[in-house]
């Protein structure tokens, strides 16, 4: 062998050991990837693809972590100030993208995440309907409460075409039929005419809510957790049209709000009462291992009132502090320190990555929704299926890493739970060989928690399945994922399988049929071929596609709460 060949062989070996791919090495030396493989094999230094991949991952992770540490050294105080001022996390990241374009986005994103600051969040679902559509909901609900009949002749004469187009298009995207939309618009116009002749007609918040419930039942679209059907809730009406006040919302629409309810300026609680109430709730949640959500506080207030202790309502607290996050931040500033203090053996920081994955899924979905609407019809259907395949694949990988981190963080308790379950005869997914390894003084968890094993837990398309590894408090958050999101996620999983194997199976049709029993808007009246499914996703302005994909961020939200529950217990 000549000296040049020896040098080349040495360089190839070194590059492969450092994690370079066969293709990268071949491109550098002007040879095929198969020739690179032959050289490595003949030299007795063949490195497997898996080993090279691990080396690349380790090298990139090390470089990324160093960049994140440098970034936080320079900007940690700035991030903290922005968080305390009520900035959204996405806004903070965007500031750095604009003013520090040379810093990779991944560094900024992970640095902001690992800063452990509490950022505000905006419920974008509350803004999914244009103002005109929210106002039409008020008029329609008022008309229904008065049992007014829609008068088509008057509607044709008095209709505002611009407003009608916006309302009609929006409701069509929500799955309303043309006949139903016509009935709604005619009722809105008839109600306005009735109100002009009877200006004293009023609509209270309670009346709106009660009538809305009846309307949703009639539409077959009952309000559920995580769902935002039309007509919107009274809370959305107040926020969108009245700055948080029902009376102001009604005045903007031109309707009397009624004479019930507290008038603005009537003070029931002092400022310290709000602090004491939130503080009391946080203490109660910590002692009883409850989640510290806005809904959790609302339930606690009800329980307190039953015990004879009056507390500021959840809505009053949110108004006082502008957001629930601000309320917790104001009275529990030590939470950040607690979260940062969470340690586990072999890990500098407990960070399963749920919040990061949640943010990434939302960003990717929003970006795709903007892009796909610009594509030709023939391309849009295929693009939807391809996105779902990649979206689900990323979820599987991120969930795999998340579950590993949760299990590692809770060692040795997580191991003890598995062994106890096996001893009690509870059937889990671990093989006898894996259980044998688990019983060793220092078990090799990397081998036990293989990708095949963790991915196998998703075979039934159920993201709640953790095979008994998690604590009850953390598992309870996953078990609380809504049935609707589970059904939608199951469809995504089977669509992904259909796209990969180029052939849908009966499970996909059954999953779609199961969801359509609850929501007729998802009915599929043809055989589920790839072409039919793609067109089905694209139709109705991609509303089905969007609703199905939203199940992934919703599942991540439950997983984020699950990791917070675990971190709180580990810190305690």
TrEMBL record:
GO terms for biological process: DNA-templated transcription initiation. Gene3D superfamilies: Winged helix-like DNA-binding domain superfamily/Winged helix DNA-binding domain. It comes from Saccharopolyspora dendranthemae. Residues 15-41 form the RNA polymerase sigma-70 region domain. SUPFAM superfamilies: Sigma3 and sigma4 domains of RNA polymerase sigma factors (SSF88659). It holds the Pfam family Sigma70_r4. GO terms for molecular function: DNA-binding transcription factor activity. This is Sigma-70-like protein.
């Amino acid at each position: 062998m000549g000296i040049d060949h020896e040098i080349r062989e040495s360089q190839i070996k070194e590059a492969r050991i450092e994690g370079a791919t066969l293709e990268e090495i071949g491109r550098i030396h002007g040879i095929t990837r198969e020739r690179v493989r032959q050289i490595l094999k003949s030299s007795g230094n063949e490195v497997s693809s898996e080993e090279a991949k691990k080396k690349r991952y380790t090298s990139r992770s090390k470089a990324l972590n160093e960049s994140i540490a440098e970034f936080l050294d320079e900007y940690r105080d700035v991030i903290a100030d922005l968080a305390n001022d009520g900035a959204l996390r996405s806004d903070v990241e965007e500031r750095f993208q604009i003013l520090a374009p040379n810093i990779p986005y991944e560094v900024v994103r992970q640095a902001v995440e690992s800063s452990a600051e509490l950022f505000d969040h905006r419920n974008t679902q509350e803004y999914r309907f244009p103002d005109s559509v929210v106002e039409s909901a008020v008029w329609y609900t008022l008309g229904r409460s008065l049992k007014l009949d829609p008068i088509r002749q008057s509607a044709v004469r008095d209709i505002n075409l611009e407003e009608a187009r916006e309302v009609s298009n929006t409701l069509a995207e929500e799955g309303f039929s043309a006949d139903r939309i016509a009935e709604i618009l005619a009722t809105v116009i008839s109600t306005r005419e009735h109100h002009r002749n009877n200006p004293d007609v009023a609509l209270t918040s309670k009346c709106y809510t009660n009538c809305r419930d009846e309307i949703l039942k009639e539409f077959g679209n009952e309000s559920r957790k995580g769902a935002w059907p039309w007509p919107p809730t009274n809370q959305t009406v107040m926020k969108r049209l009245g700055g948080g006040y029902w009376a102001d919302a009604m005045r903007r629409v031109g309707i009397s709000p009624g004479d019930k309810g507290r008038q603005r300026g009537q003070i029931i609680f002092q400022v310290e009462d709000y602090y004491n109430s939130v503080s009391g709730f946080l203490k109660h949640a910590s002692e009883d291992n409850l989640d510290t959500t806005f809904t959790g506080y609302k339930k606690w207030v009800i329980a307190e009132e039953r015990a004879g202790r009056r507390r500021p309502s959840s809505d009053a607290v949110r108004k006082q502090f502008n957001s629930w996050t601000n309320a917790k931040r104001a009275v529990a500033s030590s939470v950040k320190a607690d979260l940062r203090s969470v340690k586990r053996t072999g890990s500098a920081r407990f960070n399963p990555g749920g919040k990061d994955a949640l943010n990434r899924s939302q960003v990717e979905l929003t970006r795709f929704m903007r892009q796909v609407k610009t594509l030709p019809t023939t391309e849009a259907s295929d693009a939807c299926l391809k996105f779902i395949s990649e979206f689900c694949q990323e979820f599987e990988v991120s969930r795999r890493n998340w579950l590993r981190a949760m299990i590692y963080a809770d060692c040795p308790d997580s191991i003890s739970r598995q062994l106890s379950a096996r001893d009690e005869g509870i059937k889990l997914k671990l093989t006898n060989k894996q259980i044998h390894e688990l019983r060793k003084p220092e078990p090799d968890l990397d081998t036990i928690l293989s990708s095949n094993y963790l991915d196998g837990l998703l075979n039934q398309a159920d993201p709640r399945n953790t095979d008994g590894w998690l604590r009850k408090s953390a598992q309870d958050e996953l078990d609380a994922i809504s049935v609707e999101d589970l059904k939608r996620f199951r469809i995504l999983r089977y669509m992904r399988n259909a796209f990969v194997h180029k052939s849908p199976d009966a499970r996909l049709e059954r999953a779609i049929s199961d969801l359509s029993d609850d929501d007729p808007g998802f009915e599929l009246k043809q055989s589920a071929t790839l072409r039919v499914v793609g067109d089905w996703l694209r139709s109705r302005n991609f509303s089905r596609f969007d609703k199905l994909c939203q199940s992934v961020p919703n599942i991540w939200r439950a997983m984020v709460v699950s990791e917070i529950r675990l971190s709180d217990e580990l810190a305690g």
